[in-house]
Amino acid sequence: MEELVNVKGMVIKHSPVGDYDWVATVFTADRGKITAFARNARKPGSKLAGSVEPFCFGTFKLFAGRNSYTIVEADIENYFEGFRQDLEGACYGTFFLEIASFYTRENNEDKELLNLLYISLKALLNEKIGNNLVRCIYEIKALCIEGEFPGIPGGRKFLDSTVYTVNYIATSPLKKLYSFDVSKEVLSELEDITAEYRKRSIDKPLKSLEMLESLYNVR
């Protein structure tokens, strides 16, 4: 028996199925990462056309079947259309989606990580701080939310400003994360720290990171 449910979430990725359908991976606040079919969404004039693209954030009405979900309606609050004109921002945003996909699990409530993802994507588009700093903040805070933050790496002396920045990110509420900038020296050390965290925590290649490395020298 199918049950109709509403979930708040963001489309992480999608792929074509059959002649007219999409299958979408949606990161939801209450059910974690789910896979849902969007029937006939690739047909011209479909009410779901454009609603199951990556970055689409809103409320999805689903049929919850025994083995799968089907999207019936989508009320999209933010399409993040700015990424269509901002290739660099889109590359960073895709990396954020892939990180979120790695951490979240099906049927695992993860509202704070979803909120972090949302405000981090907005930070990429507002141009108040550089994309690489946004990335570092996002990666560090995601580790904190998932309970995997290891603290300042040992075996190396970091600038006091870097240590302060990492601790500020770890302890601050989400609304205060993207309210500051750092020097080039601190940013370089933050890049080293996040690279080390990633090496410890993520045990598979990230395709979006490979693109960032090749296009924008991200490490």
From TrEMBL:
GO CC annotation, single: bacterial nucleoid
Record's keyword annotation contains Glycoprotein: no
Keywords: DNA damage, DNA recombination, DNA repair
Domain DNA replication/recombination mediator RecO N-terminal: 4-79
Top-level taxon: Bacteria
Gene Ontology biological-process entries: DNA recombination; double-strand break repair
Annotated SUPFAM superfamilies: ArfGap/RecO-like zinc finger (SSF57863), Nucleic acid-binding proteins (SSF50249)
Function: Involved in DNA repair and RecF pathway recombination.
Official protein name in the record: DNA repair protein RecO
Organism for this UniProt entry: Butyrivibrio hungatei
Pfam name, any one: RecO_N
Annotated family: Belongs to the RecO family.
UniProt KW Transcription keyword: no
